[in-house]
Amino acid sequence: MNPTADGIVLGAAATAIVAYLIFPVIVVLAISFSAGNFLEFPPPGLSLRWYRAIAGDPEWISAFMVTLKVGSLTALLATLLGVPAAFALVRHVVPAKALLNALILCALVTPPIVTAISTYLFFVPLGLNNSIGGLACAHAVSGMPFVVINTAASLRSADRNLERAAIIHGAPPLWAIIRITLPIISPGIIIGAILAFVHSAHELLIAMFVLGGVGKPVTVKIWSDVQATSDPTIAAASAILIGLAILTFISVSTAQALARRRNG
Amino acid sequence: MTAIAEHAPPRAHAVGQAIPALLLLPALIWIVAFFLLPLVLMCWRSLAAEGYSFKAYETVFTSPLYTKVMLTTLESASVATVLALVLAYPMAYTLIITSGIRRGLLLMFVFIPYWVDIIVRTFSWLILLGDHGLINALLRNLGIIHAPLPLLYSEFAVLVGMVQILLPLTIVVLFGAMLRIDRTLIAAAKIHGASSWQAFRNVFFPLSLPGVYGAALLVFVLSLGFYVTPALLGSPRQTMIAQTIMVEASELLDWGQASAAGFVLLVITTLIAAIYNRYFSLDRLWGGSDA
């Protein structure tokens, strides 16, 4: 094969794969603006009626509020727990570091159904079921790895001499970390917090067991509606989540670009 | 940085022992309280259904229902893993050989679906593969078929959905692994007369295989736990283990049985994840800023 033939084959393959990845997303976006009454693609006409339907439905508003609350609390908890852990793992000699690392990350490879039923069994006697705080506590476990990984990466690439210089000039070590190091690594922390939020907003199974009755978050509401109804309201709700994904991508890229500029 | 900490004077070292412990403690307490303790409780529950017995485990390993579900799960997960790797490889390679804005754009197309909810992506196939969906309509208009093909509620639909969901992570993991390959070796092969295909076949591809094995283990572990996609796109005959556990827990309210099946699934995934972690280290994933 000559180089151009290679290039054409590879380019065609990459295009086909991108189409496969993106097409489902485009379909949902298109249907969310449908003027028709059913989930059909291509939509018969365009309108904003399904977005209005969501805005006028207290159940959907409440679902979005619940997701927002659980997600923010998850991101906050994951950051408070994850940032110190990342400092310990990057900067200090810790016994059994590999094991600790694996322990922090293992929630991400545990099947969600297993985490969901074990969390439910644990929450029932504690009375944490049906509570937003309870769900955030559970989500924080799998949100934490995102914070630890991204904070650790920022810490490894940050220039520690700036912090040392502050200490030499008389700053107390903790103050030097707060005033010098934290601002330098803040893009990493922010990426981690955003990913923890998104992770929580997408999580279905734990949410279904903990907040399955009243006060459902968006994913649980979409999941129960998908099986019951077939009007494009679900598509509009999904489109709002896709908007969240695009927003995530933009903020993560911005934070990364910021980090790159800081590190020169 | 850590090298300096290791050579710190003895006094600083003694203080340095208490600090990391204090920094790690909150995270560890949290993981024990909200992750490990519930798992222990689930294990206890699986044994304590009717007095203490292994009856629930006996059911998992011997009943025809569980045998079938386990085999279906292993089969779907294996096929999805292979398909995801076959599709991810050329994409990751394309990312390697492009740069600048083109690479950025391609990465955007990989990452945006990654951050779109799994239910949303699955739900989209529900519309596309239905009897009146785009694919059947297209085939009918082209005159290829007269009656709609039964695409939905089949193994085909489940695989289409699963692979689409697994692809972004597979691409990112393979891309990360390929970035660590020394590309001057390919240039060297070409200088010595290899065509670009030969250089790829004999130099780049063998060097990329460890990354492929790593991605395979990881994607396989994640596929074993799929719930939404088989539940929405599959037929009852292709039930996967997560769905069975869900039915035991939420419909039959047999928590002992659900816990036992959950524990077996946990042991299988943890073992595979441990092998992965031993050879590839989990923390290279998720976040990607290290890659």
Give a structural overview:
The complex is a heterodimer of chains A (264) and B (291). Chain A is an all-alpha fold and 264 residues long. Chain A has a single domain, classed as MetI-like fold. In chain A, 78% of the residues lie in helices and 0% in strands. Chain A has eleven helices and no strands. Chain A has helices spanning 3-32, 49-55, 58-91, 97-105, 112-126, 132-157, 161-168, 173-202, 205-210, 218-228, 233-262. In chain A, helix 6 (132-157) packs across helix 8 (173-202), helix 7 (161-168) runs antiparallel to helix 8 and helix 8 (173-202) runs antiparallel to helix 11. Chain B is mainly α and 291 residues long. Chain B has two domains: 1-47, no CATH class; 54-284, MetI-like fold (Orthogonal Bundle). Helix content of chain B is 77%, strand content 0%. Chain B contains 13 helices and no strands. Chain B has helices at 2-6, 10-47, 55-62, 64-97, 100-114, 118-128, 134-141, 155-179, 184-191, 196-224, 228-233, 241-251, 255-280. In chain B, 44% of the residues are buried. Residues 1-11 and 286-291 of chain B have low confidence and may be disordered. Chains A and B meet through helix 1, helix 3, helix 4, helix 5 and helix 6 of A and helix 1, helix 2, helix 4, helix 5 and helix 6 of B.
Total discrete domains of chain A: 1
The number of helical runs of chain A is 11
Number of domains of chain B: 2
Which stretches of chain B of 5+ consecutive residues score pLDDT under 50? 1-11, 286-291
- What's the main sheet of chain A like? none
User: How much strand content do the residues of chain A show?
Assistant: under 5%
Structural class of chain A: mainly alpha
Oligomer category = heterodimer
- Shape of chain A, please? globular
Which stretches of chain A of 5+ consecutive residues score pLDDT under 50?
none
